[in-house]
Amino acid sequence: MLDLETMGNASFAAIISIGLVEFDIETGITGREFYVNVDLQSCIDLGLIIDASTLKWWMKQNDHARKEFTDRVSIPIQNALSDVAEFCNKNYQIWGNSARFDCGILQNAFNKAGMDIPWDYKKERCIRTLVSFAPNIKANFKQSGNAHNALDDCKYQIGYCSEIWRYLNSD
């Protein structure tokens, strides 16, 4: 599972944090986790962009959400991408909130940095498509952790995606 926190929703949005969690879609059991805060200036230097409306949106979020990227140590985007590449492998299915958002924005950052994506593009999976088959499950699934923390959001998404998967594959 991949989740990004960004400073925009366009395809070249600046990334402020990246979360990844290995998981089994059938059971919801999780494995290794990855989380990093990304230095915003390094994203701008790479050519990624900040959207004013998203910046305003972040300013309206609760203190905990804002502190996730203002009070933690961050690393340059190139280092974060190298770390993502070490975490991922081509055997993974990579789930994100649409191929155009999480997967697409991260792929564009890899492209801007002159790096290959560390997953097989044919194994990209869309959470939004899965949710569309049983939207009531997500609507009633209790979020734990902190909203807008990329790692906590991964775990939340794993929870409701696995529940939807089991529902769709039940007898």
From TrEMBL:
Positions of the 3'-5' exoribonuclease Rv2179c-like domain: 1-165
Pfam families with a match to the protein in the record: Rv2179c-like
Single GO MF descriptor: nucleic acid binding
Family matches, as InterPro entries: RNaseH-like_sf (IPR012337), RNaseH_sf (IPR036397), Rv2179c-like (IPR033390)
Protein name: Endodeoxyribonuclease
Origin species: Cyclobacterium marinum (strain ATCC 25205 / DSM 745 / LMG 13164 / NCIMB 1802)
